Amino acid sequence: MTIAAMATPDIIRTGNDGLDTILRGGLPANRLYLLEGAPGSGKTTLALQFLREAVRRGEKALYITLSETREELAVVAASHGWNLDEFDVFELNSADDVLGTGREQSILHSWEMELSGTVKLIQEEVERIQPCRVVFDSLSEMRLLAQDPLRYRRQVLALKQFFAGRKSTVILVDDLTGSRDCGGDTHLHSLCHGVVTLERLTLDFGAARRRLQVQKMRGIDFTAGYHDFTIKKGGLDIYPRLIAAEHHSSFVGDPVPSGVGALDALMSGGPLRGSSTLVTGPAGTGKTTIALQYVYAACERGECSTIYEFDERIGTLMARATAFGLDLQKHVDSGCLVIQQIDPAEVAPGEFAALVQREVENRGVKMIVVDSLNGYLAAMPQEQQLILQIHELLSYLSQRGVVTFLINPQQGLLGTMATNLNISYVSDAVIMLRFFEAQGRLRKAISILKNRAGPHEDAIRELRIDAQGVRVGEPLVDFKGVLTGTPEYTGERAPLLEAR
């Protein structure tokens, strides 16, 4: 074998599409890897997926278990609809299997005899089966048998040398029991060709969050950092961290109209493709309805759109749209519009980013509405990480030419407004909605605070949403202080909108 061939080993798939994406194809073959994580993090499930991929390829696979019984493994496999009989399982969970039931007292410690005997039986089983893939579960049992860190390290090194040259890809599973501070064994990391760590995080409220990290992988370029994942029927559903720079596509940045001429005129024809627009204001000012107007116009043009509802029920949203003359149901029935209800307590930010990416890649979505950012904030309590997540997601959507609307409710109804999320600098355009009082009525005002994509009108206009739809009135030139919610009338009679 040439030096070049040794430097570029074959790449094999792991049986998990998400992990293969993170590894940019899969694992270098015929190497020793460490899969570590606390109990309940999903190690056994991922290891079974790894072996099932070998079965799919017509290769022999071996699962060596020192801790769990075959029946316990069968329960895990059955929960995913798998059959444990597809590959060999070598069960070794008692000292009697190693030393025999008729053993006598010896001057040697029983753990010394048990450890050496265990390793010998494992080697004999591997010699008999000649597997292409091996899972060794778990190292914590060997660590207990060794009793001594140096002896344990020597045994792991012996296993590595035993498998070297046998054309076997081996995964060592470690549940971190008894390892240093339960943070992983650094000596073990140095022995293995690659290390994959699974974590299970318990939040104050909601479902447990799980994430994966490839700590090292010799010889390949992988996506570093944390990647969220969930355990579902069929295995681990891993959501690779979104990197916007890897998803650029060409598109024409033309304005996207809403179908309401006066509304489009505020932004010189509408937001441009690939831009993000923040619609902010207190509750009840019409933020969602403004976004729905753009979505309806996009669907009328035949452009697929998706609405992610964090706060409002889909039924309420549909009823409101119908009351304002927007028949969204016909577009839902045709498949042009998809409305997804998102439970922020159950969905991790990485999973949500994966949902958005699948809509763009699979359905060719041209417009996305996130309603609202408060719900998205609830899905990720760490605000700094939230800003980074949103920035990367918006950058990805911009690279794909998708128009994005972010609904940002503000605290309070009248007077000075406040928000618990400073996100305005991330978006390309900001639409501000406000209440104001005039002629004994509670009215609404609309203004464009910024538009990076082009010119915008700086006037403050009245906004009215009723059975006639969305209407934008004349500039409120006879008022001052409208944006504060306490305007002062300075003219004779303002040209205000009335019900038709």
Automatic annotation (TrEMBL):
<dbReference type="InterPro" id="IPR027417">
    <property type="entry name" value="P-loop_NTPase"/>
</dbReference>
<dbReference type="InterPro" id="IPR014774">
    <property type="entry name" value="KaiC-like_dom"/>
</dbReference>
<dbReference type="GO" id="GO:0005524">
    <property type="term" value="F:ATP binding"/>
</dbReference>
<keyword id="KW-0677">Repeat</keyword>
<feature type="domain" description="KaiC">
    <location>
        <begin position="254"/>
        <end position="486"/>
    </location>
</feature>
<dbReference type="GO" id="GO:0004674">
    <property type="term" value="F:protein serine/threonine kinase activity"/>
</dbReference>
<dbReference type="InterPro" id="IPR051347">
    <property type="entry name" value="Circadian_clock_KaiC-rel"/>
</dbReference>
<keyword id="KW-0378">Hydrolase</keyword>
<keyword id="KW-0808">Transferase</keyword>
<dbReference type="GO" id="GO:0016787">
    <property type="term" value="F:hydrolase activity"/>
</dbReference>
<dbReference type="InterPro" id="IPR003593">
    <property type="entry name" value="AAA+_ATPase"/>
</dbReference>
<protein>
    <recommendedName>
        <fullName>non-specific serine/threonine protein kinase</fullName>
        <ecNumber>2.7.11.1</ecNumber>
    </recommendedName>
</protein>
<dbReference type="InterPro" id="IPR010624">
    <property type="entry name" value="KaiC_dom"/>
</dbReference>
<feature type="domain" description="KaiC">
    <location>
        <begin position="10"/>
        <end position="252"/>
    </location>
</feature>
<dbReference type="Pfam" id="PF06745">
    <property type="entry name" value="ATPase"/>
</dbReference>
<keyword id="KW-0597">Phosphoprotein</keyword>
<dbReference type="InterPro" id="IPR030665">
    <property type="entry name" value="KaiC"/>
</dbReference>
<keyword id="KW-0418">Kinase</keyword>
